[in-house]
Known about the structure:
There is one protein chain. It contains 16 helices and no strands. Helices cover 75% and strands 0% of the residues. It is globular and about 85 Å long. The chain is mainly α and 367 residues long. It starts with 7 loop residues before the first helix and ends with a helix. The chain has helices at residues 8-39, 46-58, 62-72, 81-93, 108-143, 148-162, 165-179, 202-239, 242-249, 254-266, 268-279, 286-292, 297-307, 310-338, 340-353, 357-366.
Amino acid sequence: MEEPKPTAAKRFFNAWLVRRLAKAVLTVFLVTTGTFFLVRLLPGNPVDTYIQTQIAQTGISYDAAAAQAKNLFSLDPDQPLIQQYATYMLNLLHGDFGNSLLSPGTTVAQVIKTYLPWTLFSVGVATILSFMIGIVAGMVMAYRRESWIDHLLSSIGSFLHAIPNYILAILIVVFLGVKLQVFDLTAARGSYTPGVEPSFSLAFLNDIFYHATLPILAYLLTTVGSWALVMKSSTVETLGEDYVTVARARGLSDSRIRSGYVGRNAVLPLFSVLAISLGFVVGGSIFVERIFGYQGIGFSLYNAISGRDYPVLQGIFLVITISVVIANLLADILYSRLDPRIRVRSDKARAMGAGDSGGAGDAGGGE
């Protein structure tokens, strides 16, 4: 029995997905290449940094410090740059990210595996919480337009959105940690208390939440305002749509209109932004984690920049790039699934551009 042929819409989606995957691979390649050369433009290198540190701390001669550096680091800064690049890309194809220069014997993969989960935990929790709170606050502002609560929440949201997260982190340290002494900043440093055995227990969960509270608070307060303002704008726009007017004319209750018509359509643009925001989870934590002493991937990235640890820098930037590219791809797919009209319009536009009006009609009918 002959299998049914795929519809025009399905053929278009498959071709679109292939193109997006090709662009994603090209983006990762270009960013990886750019990162390799950019980190080497930083003043100094691991060998020079180590030599200067040893001279300052121990007072040994330059030649003695240089001999120690060459024995310690598996890096030859005098090797031609193009040869270093070829070796690096070849190792990447074999899944080898290299070894840390600051921690001999430790691979870059081990560094990422050790520190990345804590950043995903703190920033991920804060992003989900701010998204949920922002949606509720945005709908309240939209339904109470020009009221005192709208002006109050809009002002707070605009104020919080304008503050960089590292500035707010410093304010939290000064007021909650030093002035009011709500938190013991020394005890809260790190991702969990030294000596505590990681396990799936309530005690360990309480401990990691205690250490992540301040970073989560900084991320939450600096992002919830933007979610609320975007949700307010989207909700106001949705309230003016014809189908909402028709729903009211049919006598549907306000709660049914809010949940079934306004809410689900107003939140669509935010889902794609949420997917992209999750992609930036890895790279948006360097200053906040350094301020709080929270040992996540941002803390590791700061140390790698300070010590010119090229392999760790390149590995972390590669993870950031891949996460952002995948997040953008998932956002496009998610939005096209949540709103089928996007696929119909895209399919028709492509068919008209190719001069194939029949394909557009098939795509519309397939939807």
